[in-house]
């Protein structure tokens, strides 16, 4: 049976674990805290002991002592030392290695006679693996295609020369494919392919084809690979493969010219549009970069002085480029390459993406007027109202990330439609007015009373709440 | 050190021992003193089977990391390169060897390719060494640990059968599964005449192709171990964690200098507490830790009751064990806190909500606002791709309009060069435009009960607890195979890609198991193309269910999660800035 309650209480009070209560609280956090406390109090109890007392020894780098990666570092380190101190009289350079690698782990192995047996304390039965009989049949020659493939799988010498006719070669190829060993397939394919002639044959043997393509990719034999793909009619693969080359071109002008040459490649219609955009973007980035670098160096343009550019815009993604343009070139007319509106039009950027990007860029500059203008639209009566292609809670989120002041935040928090979301956001950003007004609109007297306790004594907010609570015209729901 | 491997039903130490034996034999083949030059990537996997001490006993005197330039000096007869078969590594080896040439003419060089040698690499080396025939290169195949090639999987399974007996029944689903089974049967014919006389440990082998279940790895794993992997990444049983929570605060000592190096921890079942909580849903981990804390505190309290010298002695003798338990509890409490910070964040919750909407089939045919917002705020591309692929898989392909929209937003925001990555995902079937108007995912979901309302996270009664509602498709297939059998789901099996099949392997007379009443059967489940920690947890859960009557052993080509998986399909992922 369990101890009776008072007993239990006594028990805990008598021990050192006062702070450590088990109130059977189901809260996850307090549970973790609990076990952490227990751990800490126990630590105190056994303080005199070494901290790393158990399981395994660990070196400074955190590797277990004696593990392979630890030893690699250790032996290498000791080796370096001998390299580094050539001026010292030569005291046996190996000594540090020996003493160090024995540290902590296998002092005992110094005393062991039969080294071969000492590696495992428990000897286990590890049976010999049987070998297929074909492995014993090594000294006959004149192999059939099937046998040849088997020998290749075992890594033995074979001669493929005797497979001369096309038919023999294809037979050999088919056996290698059915063996599913990539090494063999590649070897046989390389042997059988007297190029272009056999491309056709490969097409009906997809596995061999895959391995061959892999081989050509790895050996970077671009020319042959393209030739093969062309013969097979895999035009989209060719296009992508060639397009990929641009990644290895560092010079931006060369890269641009290369991308231009890619435009005529047989991409799928969708990809073709994307590659076109890629080219247009880089072309534009090169122009903007040149102009802006000059403007920055000239020291005449204020924005570059106030916010020096951190990196070049070359090869940045489109949206990053748009952000850059919204940051440095916001007011430019639509005619220039760097005008945000021009970028938006040219690349068909969605309204939402454009909006988010412009918002973030202008908020970063604390250009609240621009931010405000982004939302403003006039209806037919000439009244202005705020409209946004994305939820106002996301707007608040973006503004807050760019450290907008409370006044600005408040305006947008107030525009959040959902009352609950509005309150939680308002609480997060300390927009008292919004909270108070929302409770008033909800006619929630209880919540308002509760909130009064949270605002400062004698503040404007408190007065406002009191006025509302005393207002006889409001019909409270509770 | 590896005692935990022997506890289970199948003694995995045999496998480890066989690998060690092969390694010893290889080392002894190169007689005389040796230095090993490591491909750094391999030190982890090798650490699983051998310690430095074993290498030393076989005359390995020095170890270096493979780097270009000159080899560090070492007075040894043999230099052995342990490398993966990668072309760029061959270039480094060649550089090393050439710079060595004039100094030690009698030195021998060897290369050990892990997991297998490759024709391509040998060719590359030949280019370098055509005129240097004095070098003797020994190329050996070794250690099938991370191999996707089907041939080597089949070979690995043959090795497994040589050690644990012929597996009488083979089931499989998917193209690759079919190939592997075919190769195994062919290899078996080669052994004809010499019968395997070992009593079979496994009753059934199930081969599952990752292509059959593209959905599961995309979902966020919600088990303790799964979350550790999702957030911090587990490599060869080790995890690196931010150090702040692990700072040792001693009494009276201000914690002014926080450690800056990441804290590296080993995670395996040898640690009692970890074995207990690794497969739990994360929401059940807090309770388990607090329970453990009570037990440990109570154990330490025992000292108050120890009155006689004998009792005190008894108490003291238990201290080391108790301290180990305490330190383990401390570590896992810190890890749980780190994870809790993330799982309670709004971002995590929103992401999970969208995943669950997709998995239950809500609005998978429309552009998702959350994904749109994530793109707008430039969240990491991998996160976006994971969600978009998930939507595509759950809708049997995206509507052309939706597909085009996502593609455009991604290219505009992350760069046009990602056309190549999107193309790879398309080829892998993860992201595609809808070809037929019929979306059969709802049928699959209902038939296989992939979504369970009110999954019990604390005391699970179904595998769906590992994803808090979603039951991994791969594991459902495994479960149904055991009972009532695949015949009951023929229709759904046909909707999933690739063939399904059953093969039998004859056992020699006398090796047929005489099953005791109530004795469990054992199935080896082989995941071709990777498996997640949550799937493993679900399988272990099935093993433990009292009435399942089935034990599962898991084998795979690699451990994956959504992030590592998508990364492997990306074009030049190393260029991604997060």
From TrEMBL, chain A:
UniProt record, GO biological process: intracellular protein transport; vacuolar transport
Q: Give the stretches traversing the membrane.
A: none
Chloroplast among the record's keywords? no
Q: Which of UniProt's keywords are assigned here?
A: Cytoplasmic vesicle, Endosome
Q: Where in the cell is it found?
A: Cytoplasmic vesicle; Early endosome; Late endosome
- Disordered: where is this region? 77-96
- State where it is primarily located: cytoplasm
The Gene Ontology CC terms held by the record are: early endosome; late endosome
* Name of the protein in its database record: Spermatogenesis-defective protein 39 homolog
TrEMBL record, chain B:
Q: Write down the SUPFAM superfamilies for this protein, in alphabetical order.
A: Sec1/munc18-like (SM) proteins
| A UniProt-annotated Pfam family | Sec1
**Subcellular locations according to the entry:** Late endosome membrane; Lysosome membrane
Q: Which domain of life is it from?
A: Eukaryota
InterPro entries per record: Sec-1-like_dom1, Sec-1-like_dom3a, Sec1-like, Sec1-like_dom2, Sec1-like_sf, VPS33_dom3b
Principal location: membrane
Membrane topology type, per the record? Peripheral membrane protein
Would you name any one GO CC term? lysosomal membrane
Gene Ontology BP, a term: vesicle-mediated transport
Query: What keywords sit in the KW lines?
Result: Membrane, Protein transport, Transport
**Database matches in PANTHER family:** VESICLE PROTEIN SORTING-ASSOCIATED (PTHR11679)
Family under the similarity heading: Belongs to the STXBP/unc-18/SEC1 family.
Protein name, per record:
VPS33A core subunit of CORVET and HOPS complexes
